[in-house]
Amino acid sequence: MLDGKKRKKDNDKKVIDKWKEAKITMNYKKERERISNFIRDYCRKSRFENLVIGLSGGVDSALVSALAVQAIGREHLFAFCLPSRESNPESVKDAFLVAECLDISMQTINIDELTESYFKKYAPEASPLRKGNWMARIRMNILYDQAAKHNALVIGTSNRSELLVGYFTQFGDSACAFEPIAHLYKTEVWELARELCLPEKVINKTPTADLWSGQSDESELGISYPILDSVLKYLTEGERKPEVAEEIIVKVQKMMDNSSFKRKMPPFLERQ
Questions:
Q1: Which of 31, 38, 168, 239 is 20 to 30 A from 123, alpha carbon to alpha carbon?
Q2: The sheet that has 50-54: what strands, in order across it?
Q3: Residues 118 and 150: beta-carbon distance below 8 Å
Q4: What is the rounded distance in angstroms from the CA atom of residue 124 to the CA atom of residue 103?
Q5: Alpha-carbon torsion angle 218, 220, 221, 222, nearest 10
């Protein structure tokens, strides 16, 4: 049993090492221009000059903010940091660090009062997961209200890795007008963030949705992002099968299947 666990750990390390040593296949200079053009064109077609974004202190929102500044100018991007008492104070500091680096204005709105007034009165028994989903949706409510105030679109920050396995709150952090980095795997987000010279502290930090104390993405997923991305590329793009345990591939496929409803528009009957 121990030998099996050791082999699995060794194989996982090989996949991560291969990712770290692999030559970059994407032209990130061209990709930053392609995404910036997409943002600019979508705003123009939608007849909006301004964008609203939730700046969490993580690499995804940092990257989208940087691309938005490149696309429409910093004066047209309105950033909001929406912490709760569960948020890691370092995440708030990192959000301010990103805002400072990009020279964009950012407003902080604490969501504790909104959250606690509901759960204290109506759902004191709620699990951390329920509270986490609530907070994700409350944050998006705030962003949409601010978008109405600033005559802006809400720009999304979801990456392909998390969308494919359903690691997002439906109508919460996934709610937005458009998704400029939804085609990028998490490992590609890290590389593009480096191309844009975003703070290494933000790029290298442990990914977390900050929904409760001590929470991290990879611990919840039960798999590291380099391994997850290699499996997703195999399952969705036909790339070479990664050297990981078969159970990991089965697990990722199950995550994709079980979350497929979250990636679809609500179904409805056709008129007869």
A1: 168
A2: 106-108, 77-81, 50-54, 152-154
A3: no
A4: 41
A5: 80
Q: pLDDT by residue (tens digit) across 47-65?
A: 999 999 999 999 999 999 9
- Give the orientation angle of helix 59-72 with respect to helix 186-195, to 10 degrees: 50
* DSSP codes joined into one string, 69-135: HHHH-GGGEEEEE---TTS-HHHHHHHHHHHHHHT--EEE---HHHHHHHHHHH-TT--HHHHHHHH
Fold that domain 25-215 belongs to in CATH: Rossmann fold (3.40.50)
Residue pointed to by tokens 């998006």: 140
- For residue 223, give every residue at least 6 positions away whose Cβ sits within 8 Å of its Cβ, in sequence order, or none: 231, 248, 251, 252
Judge whether 236 and 263 are in contact, CB under 8 Å: no
Taking the whole predicted model, whether its pTM rises above 0.85 is answered as: yes
DSSP type of residue 262: G
Residue 244 — left, alpha, or beta (φ > 0 → left; ψ -120 to 50 → alpha)? beta
Query: Cα torsion at 135, 57, 155, 137 (round to 10°)?
Result: 0
Per residue in 142-197, pLDDT (tens digit) is 999 999 999 999 999 999 999 999 999 999 999 999 999 999 999 999 999 999 99
